[in-house]
Design goal:
20 helices, mainly alpha, EC 4.3.2.1, binds arginine, Argininosuccinate lyase, Fumarase C, Chain B, domain 1, arginine biosynthesis, elongated, Ribonucleotide Reductase Protein R1, domain 1, 3 domains, lyase, two-stranded antiparallel ribbon, Fumarase C, Chain A, domain 2
């Protein structure tokens, strides 16, 4: 037990199985960059408090840099190299001792692992948020570029998975851009709230040294020190919020993935899957499977799992630090890795998408998707909408019975459903007119979508 950070009061050694089982080093090794950064910040703070003289501070900082520089951040290797390390804090102290000797043992003056892990995790989550925002920027750029390229190409839109009205492909893509912009703002918002420094909170009640807490906070790029030591050492809201924002993003990504999976079926035939992002079947030679979108749909489930695990972990946890919190690390790592993986493939995949515009147009231009525009024509002629709806419904029924679209009915036939029909009816239900009658902010009229695409392009800089 003499190798432990806390052996003093213990006479008996740890049960071997318990010792191995309770270690966090097998997964928290990846916090080494954060642990070293936080330790350097703390070294500055205790030097300012007179615990280290300037030569000692210099030696300490150089030693900490070596700890990071001389380790290959390869999980299995790092973990195998230090079977005695209980966690990342213990590991760093052991390594630092190799480089600076007993001076290393001064580093823990005025600090506790409870504030360290709270700090390391905040730094980790902050980096993960920045990486997510970067990834979102790339993916949104690809979606906006695809919307620009799709010009005036159309597709059917669906409610209840039944064809509804024609929309521009760009309009559909911008729906996802809207979701992703809200996601980006959720991450930015969470980042603002979490950017406070726990260092100086001690084990629970605050450092026992008159530390200037603003020193470490500034060193680490935090906006300020956290205001309450009990909260700071046991708060994991920041991790929960990250996984929750990741969850919402994951739900959005999986909606996109599901739609593309559907579009790629022979039944829809809207999309020819890019070969570089599809796989074959070992059994059925003809297959080209949408593995990317399916895996995306599946991986989004892990994000929900991470957020749920963290929420359950925090629920009912008494103040302040409890060892349960150690279990909150892996869900955060998993969410960060899962998101990073998804966002690493989505931009290129999106750029490679080739819609079958002809089939989408045919699907948008048949099956009475102009019925709402037709009813609008009548209501513009003064027919109350409820009545107009009824008359067009009758015309649709007649069309279905005689195998024709609304535009293929003769004026005489139409007049049987209402004398308001005139020659101008046909021009009001063309594909273009059907799009353009939605001339409102957020509508699919061609001029509105052109504006919306331009506005999305302009907003890209801020994402
Ligand atoms: N490995 C621990 C964790 O992740 C570090 C904090 C340990 N603190 C303690 N009082 N045992 O939570």
């Amino acid at each position: 037990n003499a190798t432990k950070m806390w052996s003093g009061r213990f006479g008996e050694p740890l049960n071997k199985r318990f010792e191995e089982w309770q270690r966090s080093f097998p997964f928290d090794w990846r916090l080494l960059p954060q642990e070293v950064a936080a330790s350097k910040a703390h070294a500055h703070a205790i030097a300012a408090a007179g615990i280290l003289d300037s030569t000692e501070l210099q030696t300490m900082l150089e030693g900490l840099d070596r700890v990071l520089a001389e380790i290959e951040l390869d999980g299995p290797k790092v973990v195998a190299s230090a079977p005695e390390a209980e966690d990342i804090h213990h590991f760093t102290e052991l390594q630092l001792t190799k480089f600076v000797g007993n001076l290393a043992l001064k580093l823990h003056t005025g600090r506790s692992r409870n504030e360290q892990i709270a700090t390391d995790m905040r730094l980790f989550v902050r980096d993960a948020i920045d990486a997510t925002l970067e990834g979102l920027h790339h993916w949104i750029s690809a979606l906006v570029a695809l919307a620009e390229q799709s010009g005036e190409s159309v597709m059917p839109s669906y409610t209840h998975l039944q064809r509804a009205e024609p929309v521009l492909i760009a309009h559909w893509l911008l729906a996802y851009v809207s979701m992703l912009e809200r996601d980006a703002s959720r991450f930015r918002d969470a980042r603002k709230r979490m950017n406070l420094c726990p260092l100086g909170s001690g084990a629970i009640a605050g450092a026992t040294l008159a530390l200037d807490r603003t020193i470490a906070a500034r060193e680490l790029g935090f906006d300020a020190p956290t205001p309450n030591s009990m909260d700071a050492t046991s708060d994991r809201d920041f991790a929960l919020e990250f996984t929750q924002a990741a969850t919402v993003l994951g739900l959005h990504i999986s909606r996109f993935a599901e739609e593309l999976t559907l579009h790629a079926t022979a039944e829809f035939g809207f999309l020819d899957l890019p070969e570089a992002f599809s796989t074959g079947s070992s059994a059925m030679p003809q297959k080209k499977n949408p593995d990317l979108t399916e895996l995306i749909r599946g991986k989004s489930a892990r994000l929900v799992g991470s957020a749920t695990a963290l929420a359950m972990l925090i629920k009912g946890l008494p103040l302040a630090y409890n060892k349960d919190l150690q279990e909150g690390q892996e869900p955060v790592f998993d969410a960060a890795d899962t998101l990073a993986g998804m966002l690493s493939v989505l931009p290129d995949f999106t750029r490679a998408l080739k819609f079958r515009a002809d089939r989408m147009k045919t699907a948008a231009d048949s099956g009475y998707l102009n019925a709402m525009a037709a009813a609008t024509y009548l209501s513009n002629k003064g027919v109350p909408f409820r009545k107009a709806h009824e008359k067009i419904g009758n015309a649709v029924r007649f069309g279905l019975e005689t195998g024709r679209e609304l535009g293929q009915l003769t004026l005489d036939e139409l007049k049987a459903f209402g004398d308001e029909f005139g020659e101008d009816f046909y021009a009001s239900i063309t594909l273009e007119a059907t799009l353009d009658c939605h001339d409102v902010i957020g509508g699919t009229a061609r001029n509105r979508v052109t504006e919306a695409v331009q506005a999305a392009r302009a907003r890209l800089e801020g994402i």
